[in-house]
Protein backbone atom coordinates (compact mmCIF):
# COMPACT_ATOMS: atom_id res chain seq x y z
CA UNK A 1 0.00 0.00 0.00
CA UNK A 2 1.48 3.31 -1.08
CA UNK A 3 0.21 6.31 0.88
CA UNK A 4 -0.02 9.29 -1.46
CA UNK A 5 -1.22 11.78 1.15
CA UNK A 6 -3.09 11.91 4.42
CA UNK A 7 -6.18 14.11 4.49
CA UNK A 8 -8.27 15.34 7.39
CA UNK A 9 -11.84 14.18 8.01
CA UNK A 10 -13.72 17.23 6.65
CA UNK A 11 -11.70 17.11 3.44
CA UNK A 12 -12.42 13.37 3.15
CA UNK A 13 -16.14 14.14 3.55
CA UNK A 14 -16.02 16.79 0.81
CA UNK A 15 -14.20 14.34 -1.50
CA UNK A 16 -16.82 11.67 -0.76
CA UNK A 17 -19.47 14.12 -1.96
CA UNK A 18 -17.47 14.67 -5.16
CA UNK A 19 -17.02 18.37 -4.44
CA UNK A 20 -13.47 18.27 -5.81
CA UNK A 21 -15.05 17.77 -9.27
CA UNK A 22 -16.76 21.16 -9.09
CA UNK A 23 -14.81 23.65 -11.18
CA UNK A 24 -15.67 26.89 -9.39
CA UNK A 25 -14.24 28.10 -6.10
CA UNK A 26 -16.53 27.38 -3.20
CA UNK A 27 -16.85 27.46 0.57
CA UNK A 28 -18.29 24.38 2.28
CA UNK A 29 -19.45 23.78 5.85
CA UNK A 30 -19.01 20.18 7.05
CA UNK A 31 -21.21 19.29 10.05
CA UNK A 32 -19.94 16.00 11.52
CA UNK A 33 -21.93 14.47 14.38
CA UNK A 34 -20.51 11.04 15.17
CA UNK A 35 -21.10 8.63 18.03
CA UNK A 36 -18.85 10.39 20.53
CA UNK A 37 -17.69 13.71 19.07
CA UNK A 38 -19.03 16.66 17.12
CA UNK A 39 -17.09 18.91 14.71
CA UNK A 40 -17.92 21.73 12.35
CA UNK A 41 -15.36 22.65 9.69
CA UNK A 42 -15.37 25.25 6.96
CA UNK A 43 -13.40 24.42 3.84
CA UNK A 44 -12.46 26.48 0.83
CA UNK A 45 -12.07 24.70 -2.48
CA UNK A 46 -9.93 26.38 -5.10
CA UNK A 47 -8.29 24.77 -8.14
CA UNK A 48 -9.02 21.25 -6.85
CA UNK A 49 -7.39 21.87 -3.46
CA UNK A 50 -9.18 22.08 -0.13
CA UNK A 51 -8.06 24.42 2.61
CA UNK A 52 -9.56 24.18 6.11
CA UNK A 53 -10.49 27.74 7.09
CA UNK A 54 -11.77 26.89 10.57
CA UNK A 55 -12.80 24.06 12.86
CA UNK A 56 -14.96 24.15 15.97
CA UNK A 57 -16.76 21.49 17.93
CA UNK A 58 -17.73 19.78 21.14
CA UNK A 59 -15.65 16.74 22.07
CA UNK A 60 -18.17 15.66 24.68
CA UNK A 61 -21.20 15.64 22.36
CA UNK A 62 -22.18 12.78 20.08
CA UNK A 63 -24.92 10.37 19.11
CA UNK A 64 -24.33 8.40 22.33
CA UNK A 65 -25.80 11.35 24.25
CA UNK A 66 -29.09 10.98 22.38
CA UNK A 67 -29.07 7.24 23.20
CA UNK A 68 -28.40 8.00 26.87
CA UNK A 69 -31.48 10.22 27.12
CA UNK A 70 -33.63 7.28 25.95
CA UNK A 71 -31.85 4.98 28.43
CA UNK A 72 -32.66 7.42 31.27
CA UNK A 73 -36.29 7.53 30.15
CA UNK A 74 -36.45 3.71 30.17
CA UNK A 75 -34.81 3.48 33.62
CA UNK A 76 -37.43 5.90 35.02
CA UNK A 77 -40.24 3.98 33.31
CA UNK A 78 -39.06 0.65 34.80
CA UNK A 79 -38.75 2.22 38.27
CA UNK A 80 -42.27 3.63 38.02
CA UNK A 81 -44.03 0.62 36.47
CA UNK A 82 -42.08 -2.26 38.02
CA UNK A 83 -40.60 -0.69 41.19
CA UNK A 84 -37.19 -1.97 40.07
CA UNK A 85 -33.87 -0.15 39.64
CA UNK A 86 -31.85 -1.74 36.82
CA UNK A 87 -28.87 0.64 36.94
CA UNK A 88 -26.64 -1.91 38.73
CA UNK A 89 -27.62 -4.76 36.39
CA UNK A 90 -24.90 -4.75 33.69
CA UNK A 91 -26.72 -7.09 31.32
CA UNK A 92 -30.01 -5.18 31.58
CA UNK A 93 -28.20 -1.85 31.03
CA UNK A 94 -26.43 -3.20 27.93
CA UNK A 95 -29.81 -4.26 26.51
CA UNK A 96 -31.32 -0.85 27.33
CA UNK A 97 -28.43 0.87 25.53
CA UNK A 98 -28.86 -1.30 22.41
CA UNK A 99 -32.65 -0.76 22.44
CA UNK A 100 -32.17 3.00 22.86
CA UNK A 101 -29.87 3.22 19.84
CA UNK A 102 -32.34 1.24 17.73
CA UNK A 103 -35.21 3.50 18.86
CA UNK A 104 -33.18 6.61 17.96
CA UNK A 105 -32.58 5.21 14.47
CA UNK A 106 -36.26 4.23 14.06
CA UNK A 107 -37.37 7.73 15.11
CA UNK A 108 -35.35 9.26 12.28
CA UNK A 109 -37.85 7.81 9.80
CA UNK A 110 -40.96 7.12 11.93
CA UNK A 111 -43.13 9.14 14.29
CA UNK A 112 -42.85 6.50 17.01
CA UNK A 113 -40.67 3.58 18.04
CA UNK A 114 -41.69 0.44 19.91
CA UNK A 115 -39.15 -0.83 22.43
CA UNK A 116 -39.54 -4.50 23.40
CA UNK A 117 -37.28 -6.07 26.02
CA UNK A 118 -38.54 -9.54 26.99
CA UNK A 119 -37.15 -11.02 30.22
CA UNK A 120 -35.06 -7.93 30.90
CA UNK A 121 -34.70 -8.76 34.60
CA UNK A 122 -34.93 -12.24 36.09
CA UNK A 123 -35.91 -12.01 39.74
CA UNK A 124 -35.58 -14.90 42.16
CA UNK A 125 -38.93 -15.94 43.54
CA UNK A 126 -40.96 -13.64 41.28
CA UNK A 127 -41.98 -13.16 37.66
CA UNK A 128 -39.30 -11.94 35.21
CA UNK A 129 -39.69 -8.33 34.08
CA UNK A 130 -40.41 -7.80 30.39
CA UNK A 131 -40.63 -4.23 29.12
CA UNK A 132 -42.68 -2.93 26.22
CA UNK A 133 -42.78 0.82 25.64
CA UNK A 134 -43.65 3.26 22.87
CA UNK A 135 -41.58 6.41 22.41
CA UNK A 136 -42.98 9.15 20.18
CA UNK A 137 -40.70 11.37 18.13
CA UNK A 138 -42.18 14.44 19.82
CA UNK A 139 -41.18 13.02 23.25
CA UNK A 140 -37.70 12.18 21.97
CA UNK A 141 -37.26 15.70 20.57
CA UNK A 142 -38.38 17.22 23.86
CA UNK A 143 -35.97 15.12 25.95
CA UNK A 144 -33.02 15.84 23.62
CA UNK A 145 -33.70 19.50 22.72
CA UNK A 146 -30.80 20.64 24.96
CA UNK A 147 -28.43 18.40 22.97
CA UNK A 148 -29.64 19.77 19.63
CA UNK A 149 -29.15 23.30 20.96
CA UNK A 150 -25.52 22.49 21.85
CA UNK A 151 -24.87 22.09 18.10
CA UNK A 152 -25.57 25.80 17.52
CA UNK A 153 -22.49 27.42 19.10
CA UNK A 154 -19.82 25.46 17.14
CA UNK A 155 -21.53 26.45 13.86
CA UNK A 156 -21.43 30.12 14.87
CA UNK A 157 -17.82 29.81 16.10
CA UNK A 158 -16.64 28.13 12.88
CA UNK A 159 -18.24 30.88 10.76
CA UNK A 160 -16.73 33.63 12.93
CA UNK A 161 -13.25 32.05 12.91
CA UNK A 162 -13.35 31.63 9.12
CA UNK A 163 -14.46 35.28 8.87
CA UNK A 164 -17.28 34.45 6.48
CA UNK A 165 -21.01 35.15 6.41
CA UNK A 166 -23.71 32.49 6.09
CA UNK A 167 -24.48 33.83 2.61
CA UNK A 168 -20.87 33.02 1.55
CA UNK A 169 -21.44 29.27 1.97
CA UNK A 170 -21.95 27.32 -1.26
CA UNK A 171 -22.72 23.96 0.33
CA UNK A 172 -23.50 22.34 3.68
CA UNK A 173 -22.57 18.67 4.20
CA UNK A 174 -23.95 16.48 6.99
CA UNK A 175 -21.67 13.61 8.06
CA UNK A 176 -22.15 10.97 10.76
CA UNK A 177 -25.08 8.74 11.65
CA UNK A 178 -26.61 11.16 14.15
CA UNK A 179 -27.16 13.81 11.46
CA UNK A 180 -30.10 11.61 10.38
CA UNK A 181 -31.99 12.89 13.44
CA UNK A 182 -34.64 15.23 11.97
CA UNK A 183 -34.28 17.85 14.75
CA UNK A 184 -30.52 18.09 14.06
CA UNK A 185 -31.14 18.59 10.33
CA UNK A 186 -33.78 21.24 11.07
CA UNK A 187 -31.41 23.15 13.37
CA UNK A 188 -28.59 23.20 10.80
CA UNK A 189 -30.89 24.27 7.97
CA UNK A 190 -32.61 26.95 10.07
CA UNK A 191 -29.28 28.50 11.18
CA UNK A 192 -27.68 28.39 7.73
CA UNK A 193 -30.85 29.04 5.74
CA UNK A 194 -29.72 26.39 3.27
CA UNK A 195 -30.73 22.82 2.44
CA UNK A 196 -28.06 20.45 3.74
CA UNK A 197 -26.44 17.84 1.52
CA UNK A 198 -27.06 14.33 2.86
CA UNK A 199 -26.36 12.24 -0.22
CA UNK A 200 -23.53 10.11 1.29
Automatic annotation (TrEMBL):
Gene3D superfamilies reported in the protein's UniProt record: 3.30.420.40, Actin, Chain A, domain 4
Asked whether the keyword Chaperone is assigned, the reply is: yes
Q: Which GO terms describe its molecular function?
A: ATP binding; ATP-dependent protein folding chaperone
State whether keyword Hydrolase applies: no
Organism expressing this protein natively: Mycoplasmopsis agalactiae
Lineage of producing organism: Bacteria, Bacillati, Mycoplasmatota, Mycoplasmoidales, Metamycoplasmataceae
Lineage: superkingdom: Bacteria
| Database matches in InterPro entries | ATPase_NBD, Heat_shock_70_CS, Hsp_70_fam
> Which family is this sequence assigned to?
Belongs to the heat shock protein 70 family.
Q: Which SUPFAM superfamilies does the UniProt entry name for this protein?
A: Actin-like ATPase domain
Give the record's keywords alphabetically. Answer: ATP-binding, Chaperone, Nucleotide-binding, Stress response
Specify the protein name. Answer: Heat shock protein
Q: Name one Pfam family in it.
A: HSP70
Amino acid sequence: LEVLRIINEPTAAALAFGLDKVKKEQKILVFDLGGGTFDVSILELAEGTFEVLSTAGDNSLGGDDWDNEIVKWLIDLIKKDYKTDVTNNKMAMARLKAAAEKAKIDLSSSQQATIMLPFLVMQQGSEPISVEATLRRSQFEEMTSHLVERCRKPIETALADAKIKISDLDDVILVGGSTRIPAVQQLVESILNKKANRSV
